[in-house]
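In practice, a research group might receive sequence data for several interacting partners and want a quick structural hypothesis before committing to experiments. The following worked case mirrors that situation: the sequences arrive first, and a predicted assembly follows.
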Amino acid sequence: MIGAVLTELAPRVGHADLVRTTDETLSVSVGPGGTGIAEDQVDTVQVRAIEHGRLGWAAGATAEVGAVVAAALRSAAIGEPTVLFPPAPAGLASVATSSPAARSLRAADLLDTARRLSDRLARRGWTVETWAERSIGLVEVGNTRGVLTSYDVSLTGVGAVVTAAGGPTCRVHQSRVGPPETADLERLVDDVLARLTPPVLDDPSLPPSGRVWFGPRGVRALLEPVLARLIGNRWLGGRSWALDDRLTLVDDPLVPGRPGSRPICDDGVVTRAIVLVERGVPRQGIADLVTASRHRVPATGHGWRRGFGGVRTGFSNLILSDGDLPADRLAATVGDGLYVPEFVFGPAPNRANGIFRVVAPWAFRVEGGRITGRIDGAILAGDAFELLGRVVGIGADGEWIGAARMPSLVLDDVRFDLR
Amino acid sequence: MRELLARALAAGSGYVELRLRRRWSTAVVFRKSRLEVATEYHAFGGVARCLVPGHGWGAVAFSDPERAVAAVQRAHELSLETRPDRPIELAPVPIRQVDQSDDLSDDPRLVALPDKRTLLEGLTAELLAADRRIVDSRTSYGDTVVETWLATSEGVQLHDLRSEASLGALAVAGEDGGQERALESVAARGGWGAVAGREALFRDVAERAVARLHAPPITAGRYPVIFDPRATGALVLQAITNLCRSPARGLERELLPLGQRLGPESLSVGDDPTAPGLRTSLVLDDEGTPVQHTPLVRNGVVVGHLHTRETAARAGAPATGNGLAPTLRSIPAARPTNSYVAKGQGHPADLIREVPLGVYIADVLGVSIEGHQVTLSPAAAWMIRDGVRAEMVKCAPLTTDLFALFGRLERVAGDFAWDPSAATLHEAGPLRPITTGAPHTRFVDLDLGALHA
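A structural hypothesis for the assembly, expressed as tokens:
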């Protein structure tokens, strides 16, 4: 579809590029509130044009692509003077972005998955809601230099929300390009059991600071400020920093079958794996086409232009290298401290400074090298850059969490508090 | 459109609900003096929902009005595929036919995009010229016209046309290696004229960012804390109103139980979609339920919840008219509209005058809640010394237990103001606009932790 639009636009503008995305999402939920099935279909196009050296942009429904093109040209007429270095056609790497099995999933299949997970989690006194979802679609990318390609996409997700009387709500989920596997469901069950079965400690006797074993989801949250410094202008004009020299972080869009996998970005730039942080030293940030052109550096293939949102620079699949600490040695390495499988970095107005002070609803006391119970109302505080600069241990337990593969980390001198 | 709605409704059976919505919008964004975006959008979204007796919900969202009939048919099929353990029921509602249109005499769609750019360019220049220490800024202009058609198989019909415009400013000040930021926004129902004459807002946000540069960190300790109306409104929205929203599936958030004491007699909270003139005021919600004023906390005790028709039936309560969808194609859930804290007694100056040593917090950068743990990041804070607002301080996020927090509410002043800023409810997924209103409040003995720890 976009080829015809580009052909029509080419003689009228200095440059144009288009992204069309289609998506059909089918989701089911099973729980005490009832069973529901929802389907969502959307087909949108984004048009970016440079006319008389000025950049314009618009988005809208593909069915109204003529109006979207007109809006992009009106936008360009008053746009910022911009020099853009649009990519030329290039060979694409082969990467799995879609699964035929996922594409064939129907509502009954998803209901079956959600019900199986619900059955596995059924416990006396627990309230369980489960959901399953599959999304299928197409991404078309093209520009007036001749880039014109498309690839199918699929994504499935399965998750649960569980409450035990008096405890916090436990939310777990998993996503992948292919259909949910039994192993995914079992991992979710294990995760819920690990969180909800330890007793709540009346007196956790917390020291003011100490070691924390952050599980893979916790590590992903802790990396937020690091990632913020690796994006766009902040990377290209940023200050120097370093992490522990055992930490290596890679962004790899060519891992088969992960949610961030794709052969070409929405700017039309061919994607490739990038070492973001090598042995603690930041090596490469990411930039979309406009930001990179502004700084006269190559775009890295990280432009995202979906739906009605503007251009966003975003990572694809993040991989933090595993260490050598076996999973059964992580608690022992902490000795006296905490295990935090997951937390949210918090409402910090500026994540890039790395400073946080957050409530960790899932925090477990580790004493004598073993988990002794859950702490209600634990608060964690520190500077993420300082903490990641002195890593005690890196787990050999790396696992995929959506588009990120993270191991556990044991970090020192995290400050503790109780509400 | 009415003919299309009627034809589509006939394609399903049981309870059928069809919502069609068009949105025209403009976005202009500057990063410092560089234009980042200036564009217009037009979008359409529809949602068809069916509830066949003895089955669950089937819902289909679509983005082409031509699909309306097919969407109802598909939603009907999906409903038949569900086998709920117990039947889903809907609370009865009065059947209304409503046609509501804002006065669009200064319709923002009739203002040329270059004029909108020029407006924001001028306001941005005001911000950047306010002080040499402004090192970065992000400013925005937006307008939206939304037209909604809603029809149900029970006979509800709604046509609603409304318009709003908004401005936003983020200023970053820097000096001697330190950086501080300040935020401000305004959103008002109406057209192009709603954002006229806002130069002072842009100068003020720059001055606030600069003022923070050399503010000393607060000394950690326990203080009486006075929240201004905006901070009070934001805190109560996230920590109380949000927890009085009956969850669609039972688990996406905790629900404060009816009868629970939260705070003193002076604490009363509610949601009032009937408040006149606000951008989030309504006549019917997205399920076609007539809206109403809903008290949530009266004299410190939880007395009500916000409901959709489904959650109301489950709770044996009347529907409150809070079934709202945040996006064009999303399904209604219980959401607040105009969340308020009722005014108390006394002049706000008295709240300060009575404090020998305390903290005054104006506005918030964010409030989040995890379980019953509330975290509030102050936007600006000043020490109170001998009953007078004194020097500005940097204040770390305040983290506390919900019940402990409101148990320490000591005074609710007699002032009240609806907040004109472009506020949203903090939740996962798309954000829906909201309005808050509150007076000044004073809490005793709050633990303000040291900065950075």
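Before designing any experiment, note the following. The CA atoms of residues 52 and 428 of chain B lie 30 Å apart. Chain B touches chain A through 70 residues (CB under 8 Å).
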